């Protein structure tokens, strides 16, 4: 089977590797590698915000040496183009409001993106208990409304499952589902535990 080629610009050059110049048979010089790495990072940042750790992993996966990666990322960070704290604040705000994720789920997502623990704590602290509870309540209400007419056990299970997938604590979830069912005029023995 023939090898698939990357798309190229009008000159026939591969735009991703267009700046590949080599110094003889040994390959690109250190400066060329830094330029290539810098250009790659700038392209990635143009596409979407990234953490320093994400950029670091991406450069290492592409075979760049540690010294090159560190120098390039240090320079770009000094220029203010990499800011993990700003990334974390934006991520938390966006994902909490658009997806209804809990602080716990947001913390987990930020950690997987390489954000340091202190920065994660500061970013999720911007969501207070009341904001989190109201987001969970809205989700519980939506899930219960979508299952009206079904068996109550099914309704409760689906609402609790949705809240769990968004990272909300079990106690809060049970309490909110119970309150929303009561607001609909229903009572449930399934949620009768007074400790919840």
From TrEMBL:
RecX first three-helical domain ranges (all copies): 37-75
Record key words, sorted: Cytoplasm
Residue ranges with Basic and acidic residues bias: 1-13
Endpoints of the signal sequence: none
GO cellular component: cytoplasm
Pfam families xrefs: RecX_HTH1, RecX_HTH2, RecX_HTH3
Region annotation Disordered: where it falls in the sequence: 1-38
Biological processes annotated in GO: regulation of DNA repair
Location of the RecX second three-helical domain: 83-123
Occurrences of domain RecX third three-helical (ranges): 131-175
Keyword Nucleotidyltransferase included in the entry's annotation: no
Compartment list: Cytoplasm
Family matches, as HAMAP family: RecX (MF_01114)
PANTHER family: REGULATORY PROTEIN RECX FAMILY PROTEIN
Role noted for this protein: Modulates RecA activity.
Family designation: Belongs to the RecX family.
Name under which the protein is recorded: Regulatory protein RecX
Species whose genome carries this gene: Nocardiopsis alba
Gene this protein is translated from: recX
């Amino acid at each position: 089977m023939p090898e698939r080629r990357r798309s190229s610009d009008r000159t026939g050059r591969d735009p991703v590797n267009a700046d590949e110049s080599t110094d003889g048979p040994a390959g690109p010089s250190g400066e060329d590698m830094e330029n290539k790495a810098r250009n790659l990072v700038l392209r990635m940042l143009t596409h979407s915000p990234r953490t320093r750790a994400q950029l670091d992993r991406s450069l290492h996966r592409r075979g760049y040496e540690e010294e090159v990666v560190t120098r390039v990322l240090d320079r770009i960070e000094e220029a203010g183009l990499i800011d993990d704290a700003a990334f974390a604040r934006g991520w938390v705000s966006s994902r909490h409001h658009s997806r209804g994720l809990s602080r716990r789920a947001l913390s987990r997502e930020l950690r997987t993106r390489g954000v340091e623990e202190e920065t994660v704590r500061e970013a999720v602290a911007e969501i207070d208990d009341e904001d989190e509870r109201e987001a969970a309540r809205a989700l519980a209400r939506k899930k219960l409304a979508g299952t009206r007419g079904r068996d109550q056990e099914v309704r409760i299970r689906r609402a609790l499952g949705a809240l769990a997938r968004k990272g909300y604590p079990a106690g809060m979830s049970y309490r909110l589902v119970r309150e929303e069912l009561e607001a609909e005029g229903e009572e449930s023995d399934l949620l009768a535990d007074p400790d919840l």
